[in-house]
Amino acid sequence: MFTLLLTGCADVEKSPSNTKLTIESYTMSDQESLLISKTGVEQIEFFKLNGTLKEEDDLQISVEVFENGKAKAELLKSWDDIETKYKDSLISFGISDSTDEDPSLKLINGIPSGLATTFYPSNMTTYSFSKLIDEKITLEKNKPIYLAGWLGTTKNELRSSGVVNGELPPGIEETELAFLYKVLWTDKENK
Questions:
Q1: Residue 83 has pLDDT above 80, yes or no
Q2: CB under 8 Å to 181, separation ≥6 — which residues?
Q3: Suppose 127 and one of 68, 152, 159, 162 were both cysteines; which one would form an S-S bond, judging by CB atoms 3.0 to 4.6 Å apart?
Q4: Can you spell out the DSSP letters for 123-143?
Q5: What pLDDT does residue 100 have?
Q6: Burial class (CB in 10 A: 0-12, 13-18, 19+), 64
Q7: Is pLDDT above 80 for 102?
């Protein structure tokens, strides 16, 4: 009986055989919203990540850039994080305008292990920023999930992206510039 007990305890330490990763929108309290408003970040969305990665798995978080409806670049990409267990881990995507002399946007990517920022030139005059999920989503391996999006144009009209539960937002092909916050569960890349 003692041997069976030890064998059962040893299995607890192994990586999970059926990894399940979920992500959902995080609603800030009034106090949290007040604190964020003092940082200068104009638009930001937060999300909670839960689950445990197996040793051979990886979680990539990035901002995908679209210009004139076509994917152009992937910015602020993080992967191979030391963290493999996520328990209500917060991630975020935010955008702030820079000064009028320098027409660019500051992109902010909050990941479980820290923060990454970059600037991207922009002369867009109309834009929309929104969450792209409104319910808990279970990630599927090798299927990107888009959590939030900023869409911009120099024209007088722009279709609002709205909630699409992790899919590419409709109208992306009509935008001149778009930033989509993406999470991808994948295999670790061999070095």
A1: no
A2: 45, 61, 62, 63, 93, 109, 146, 147, 148, 149
A3: 152
A4: --SEEEEEES--S-EE--TT-
A5: 60
A6: buried
A7: no
Please return the burial class of 100, using the count of CB atoms within 10 Å of its CB with bins 0-12, 13-18 and 19+.
exposed
What's this model's pTM, rounded to 2 decimal places? 0.83
146 Cα distance to chain centroid: 7
Residue found under tokens 């955008």: 95
Q: Are 163 and 169 in contact (CB under 8 A)?
A: no
Per-residue pLDDT tens over the stretch 8-30: 444 444 444 467 899 999 988 99
What are the backbone angles phi and psi of residue 7, rounded to the nearest 5°?
A: -65, -40
| Cα 102 → chain centroid | 26
Longest CA pairwise span in the chain (Å)? 75
pLDDT higher than threshold 50 for residue 53 = yes
* Residues 131/163, Cβ–Cβ less than 8 Å: yes
Are the C-beta atoms of residues 144 and 150 closer than 8 Å to each other? no
Distances (CA, A) of 74 to 12, 46, 179: 37, 20, 9
Helices and strands: H and E segment counts in the chain: 2, 11
Helix, strand or coil for residue 129?
strand
Sign of CA dihedral 134, 89, 94, 117: negative
Tokens for 98? 């820079």
More confident site: 42 or 109: 109
